[in-house]
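Board notes (copied after class):
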Amino acid sequence: MNWNKSIHMAIIALVSVFLISGCASLTDYGKIRPQPSRGERITIEQLEENWQDYTVSYYGLKVSNPKGIMFDPKNNETTLVGDTWIKVEDKKTVSEIIGWIKNYTEFNPQVWKILGPDDRLYGYLFYPGGQVVIKVVNDTTMYVYSPSFPVSRHY
């Protein structure tokens, strides 16, 4: 019986170590969350209108084939970075990218909040959904990887 108890204690200790180390690593990643259906929300029209208040970048092969557009507020202490994101410098291009995403995306795009591990707002992403990995670089910077997209099902 002592042998069984020792095995059970060892298993419990091992599982605890894995759980604790797994939870600790969650602080290394940001989150992407949909905006609330009610209350304070920001629309893509507001982001487009106030584009100069943001560092704007898009992901895609070219302006006429964007996969998403990211808005990083300039008036806060946080920064969003990513090697595959292309900076946008003018309103015409911002509007063109938003138009392409709205009109030529199979899935319904929406504005998502980019949050740090502590739920601090880092910015916004307008895209049709899918997985986005956001990794902490330091206390004020998050690295946004290229988004993966939902699989289209054609029957």
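Comment from the instructor: Confidence is low (pLDDT under 50) at residues 16-24, 151-155. The CA atoms of residues 114 and 120 lie 8 Å apart.
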